[in-house]
Amino acid sequence: MMNRLKDSTSPYLLQHADNPVDWHPWGEEAFAEARRRDVPLLVSVGYSACHWCHVMAHESFEDAETARLMNDNFVNVKVDREERPDVDAVYMGATQAMTGQGGWPMTVFATPDGHPFYCGTYFPRRDFQRLLAAVHEAWTDKREAVLRQGSQVVSALTSQTALPSGPLPTAETLERAMDDLRASFDAAHGGFGGAPKFPPSMVLEFLLRSGEHEMSGKTLDAMSRGGIYDQLGGGFARYSVDALWVVPHFEKMLYDNALLLRVYTHWWKAGGGERARRIALETAEWLLREMRTPEGGFASALDADSEGEEGRFYVWTPEQLREVLGEDDGAWAARLFAVTGTFEHGTSVLQLLEDPDDAERFASVRARLLAARETRVRPGRDDKVVASWNGLAVAALAETGAVFDRPDLVEAAVAAAGLLDRVHLRDGRLLRTSRDGRAGANAGVLEDYANVAEGLIALYGVTGDTHWFRLAATLLDAVLGRFADGTGGFFDTADDAERLFQRPQDPTDNATPSGQYAAAGALLSFAALTGSGRHREAAHSALGTVSVLAGAHARFAGWGLAVARAALDGPVEVAVVGPPDDARTRALHHEALLADTPGLVVALGADSAPDGPALLEGRGLVGGAPAAYVCRGFTCRMPVTTPEELRRELAGG
User: Fold this and answer.
1) Which of 214, 290, 370, 595 has the fewest other C-beta atoms within 10 Å?
2) Residue 7, number of CB atoms within 10 A of its CB
3) What dihedral angle (degrees, nearest 10) is formed by the CA atoms of 164, 524, 288, 239?
4) CB atoms < 10 A from the CB of 487, how many?
5) Which of 616, 570, 608 is nearest to 589 (CA)?
6) Of 308, 194, 211, which Cα lies nearest the Cα of 267?
7) d(CA 342, CA 101)
8) 3-class DSSP assignment, residue 18
9) How far apart are CA 349 and CA 340, in angstroms?
10) How far apart are CA 107 and CA 159, in angstroms?
């Protein structure tokens, strides 16, 4: 048996490299082998931080008898859904169509052509063994029915029409979306709907851009006080299993924390106060401390499990608190952090439902507990670098660093962008992943291009380095040239990507902004910097589906709604002109970045810069002094030369 996974850049695939299962990575070799042996494919899809993926691996894929059944009767393919979101998307569509639900690990039986004919998710070992035998029997004795089933599934999926598109959302459209969100808002605990509760990052961005402070503020405050937020080390878990944000699913994902970092920074700009600032900076510091790779990028995830138990690294008992802190501080911390047995085996996830009455004591307690926790066995880390999620991190760290005057955060954003530039970008095209500075083989998908472009535009606005602006232009050229569907939307894969049985296209948000809405946002910002009608029209067209979703499904169009709000607002463009080393230029620039304006874009430099955005052209110094120009659609007000004047200009419109 060959170990075909040993050279993978996916930690998830490497976790399975020594299984007795004869795994193949996704690729033509697996399809050819299935055709040669005349057996079905067994496609197993998961990701490294997935708890039930680990369970199924231990129960079945490490079991010799189960592996024998798999090897004898199937060609087994292991897929990291984070490396191949396109493969995951088409088979998840099939799984949901066949079973009415989805999830990971995803287990798909397919013909040698890749057509799915039976799908499921997690199976306990005995059930899985029975299923393997039944599928083998059906393939052997009822081949015609199996092939017909696969053909019917593919036909049904490929005949589905794309979500209809409407006009650019209007102010009335966005108000309908607000009404829809109010209908599912949990006024008692924040968030939307019941358990499980996911951080509604993109919806919160829309609410903040709309000046809505009740739903956004309640949710942001409640999440930051609950167990979903790591009260010792910073950073957010994937979701809460309950409606009160108490017990999380403990895995921590880069994308959640990048999105939430940006949202908490924007909450601070909108008046969120010291709590918003503290959570933003703690989350940024967690990213730098726990998620940075030696090459300057950011790792994908931390596992939920350590020592074989979910959450073990993070939970505490009153006895453990007293052991670290002593009797008095231990009892005080138990009350403060609500250590009352909220999790399993008498342990608790730390919450901070009320602000401490002694800030100095709190800082000491927190530092000692964090130091003690560092001696525990840490959860595993998936250290592959995903382009899309690093793009989100670049945008968030650049903005947060600029707003709070933390150059170390901006430097981290520059380093991550540099890694994407050096390793992921080849001839104007993106590769989705890398590990240890070595690029993986998988092509970037739409969200990679869009989120990296978004991050680079934000980074340019903070640093004034036109290299990042030009790089964003290259990526957006690829978006327009390779992903457009011809009707105003975008496919999730490029026109020259590997052909699957269906070309994935989903404009709705999931855990991250949909590729289509992310593209709309980056295109809109680029148009605001350049005056490009082509980019602006493409952004507006891509937002057409928001009009369809807004009235009844607003939670699945949060980023599209946020971008639409920016489009209706202009967005506001600020050109800051002056020598970068002049303190007056820096003061104007900082004031511009503090503006609480939907979709704000900032250009920094001199009007004569040949490779800068057109927004700077013709905007000169005023009486020899640095100046700022506040514009919409390249129509600018009179320039100002002081931060106070700029603040008034921005507040006035």
Assistant:
1) 214
2) 11
3) -20
4) 11
5) 616
6) 211
7) 29
8) coil
9) 9
10) 23
Beta partners for 80? 46
- Residue 159: which pLDDT band, with cuts at 50, 70 and 90? confident
pLDDT tens-place string over residues 279-333: 999 999 999 999 999 999 999 999 999 998 999 999 999 999 999 999 999 999 9
Q: What amino acid is encoded at 106 in this protein?
A: M
Q: Could you tell me which residues come within 8 angstroms of residue 379 by beta carbon, excluding any fewer than 6 positions away?
A: 250, 251, 302, 303, 304, 305, 306, 313
Is the pLDDT at 131 greater than 90? The verdict is: yes
pTM above 0.85, yes or no: yes
CA dihedral 620, 623, 626, 632 (to 10 degrees): -50
What percentage of residues in the chain have a pLDDT greater than 90? 91
Is residue 653 scored above 60 in pLDDT? Answer: no
List pLDDT tens digits, range 22-38: 999 999 999 999 999 99
- Whether the link from the prior residue into 25 is cis, omega within 30° of 0, is no
Asked whether the beta carbons of 461 and 603 are under 8 A apart, the reply is yes
- Alpha-carbon distance of 308 to 286, in angstroms, equals 24
Measured N-to-C along each axis, helices 446-463 and 387-403 cross at an angle, to the nearest 10 degrees, of 20
Cis peptide before 105 (omega within 30 of 0): yes
**Distance, CA of 540 to CA of 478 (rounded, Å):** 18
> Residue 322 has which token pair?
């007293």
Strands 41-46 and 75-80: parallel
Provide DSSP, 567-614: HHH--EEEEEES-TT-HHHHHHHHHHHT---TT-EEEEE-TT-TTS-G
